[in-house]
Amino acid sequence: MSFATRAADLAHKTVVSSFIGLFCYQAWQLGYQMRIGTDEVKKREHPQAGFIQMLRDQYDEEYKKYFDTGHRDWYDKDDDSYLKKVPRPQDYQPGGKRN
Predict the structure, then answer these.
(1) What distance in Å separates the CA atoms of residue 71 and residue 62, rounded to the nearest whole number?
(2) Is residue 58's pLDDT more than 70?
(3) Rounded to an integer, what distance in angstroms lies between the CA atom of residue 23 and that of residue 30?
């Protein structure tokens, strides 16, 4: 009984220590990523920053139209104008080149 109790205590301590270590590591990793996110220089250096900003602008435009009942923006069978609104790499990358 004594050996089984000691083995169970050791297993329990190992599992609890592993969980605490994992929690601390995840907390450190989250804090590190949050510090990176606040650096304005790194945000400007992002290779897809133009694309992300274009998506934000399109979201703002769509949000403004959400409560407006005077616009016609629903599905039409023959309407393929949505294909013209699809963002393309030439639209958001400098010089129209893909990296």
Answers:
(1) 11
(2) yes
(3) 10
